[in-house]
User: Fold this.
Amino acid sequence: MTFPAILDASRNASPFLYGPEGQAVLRALHSGQYGHTEITEQFERDIAQFLGVPDAVAVASGTAALHIALLAAGIGPGDEVIVPSMTFCATIQAITACGATPRFIEVDPGTLCVTGHDVLEAVTPATRAVLPVLYGGRAVDLSGIHDALAERGILVIEDAAHAFGSFNGTTRVGASGHATTCFSFGPIKNLTCGQGGLIIPRGVEAAKTARSLRLLGVIESAAERSAATSYTVAGFGLRYQMSSINAAIGSVQLANFTTAESARKKLWRAYKAALAPLDGVTLVDVDVEHSVPSLCVVRVPWRDRVFDFLREHGVGVGVHYPPNHLQPAFARWHRPLPATEAIGQQILTLPFHQHLTEEHVQHVASLLEKALTVAEASR
Ligand SMILES: *Cc1c(COP(=O)(O)O)cnc(C)c1O
Assistant:
């Protein structure tokens, strides 16, 4: 089976298929079982082994992973969750879905990640969790404030939607043991299931709770259910399992992940080299030595004019993300965040996906240089 390649820079992001995904999906379709099946469970075991963790819980999306991780931690109305405003709106919706309160904080302009200092400053008596976002694939190391958080009973739940495969020190993100980690396997992430997500729970009990929450509160395993005349609905639960069809795609992607890892690092380094001579362009640092980059983001002056110029010239630029504390849905929790508001006017996401070559990167860099000249002249 072959797939049409997307060979240009007109897309900001794009899934990358290695080939066998089609056959794997057909096998899942012909199996006649599309729910949570052995294919899903094999995917969980393979991911756990790859990351070097004892267990992994597959779910329907990254948003579902965050929602379940927060619910499993017992977070609900009256609880505050510290979170950067600079993230995808899904992070915040997962908090509000629990009835909890997002407490928005700033990010470091160099990395677009939170710092331990800013996290501690935002702690109140209502704080129950911190939700750092591993922006662009970069690990967020909160080990410096780990004791201070633990003393107050504050949990760390990571939004690692961008960071599948990245390292935090010497272990893969998810394996540090200090956090519950949530991945997304949506269409444009480092690894895709089409749609999907995954939780790395902390401990056997947390894993059990997550498994019951993702399957309508039912506590028996798939094997136990098929061999019995009844099942037990032990508590609240959602329809959040990962289908066998999505797990089949993910399994093929995982088997080819070393290709993603090297291609994404190479592409990001090519951007770094190509952008270095450009005045006024600041590359957001993903720590490429340790990361599998998911985005290539720059900060530029006259961003809106630069964006328009590049779009008019066929370059698929984007913005990740409009700050959440300025969104109407989250206005109740607005607090002034001047650094994030400035960053929100400067950031520009360059095309970044595995169909791109170094020639595309050169092309984008030279058009960006032109865009800056044009934007400055029309100031
Ligand atoms: C993609 C993404 C999510 C949500 O994942 P879905 O699989 O799309 O639900 C959450 N947070 C961030 C930072 C993301 O990029």
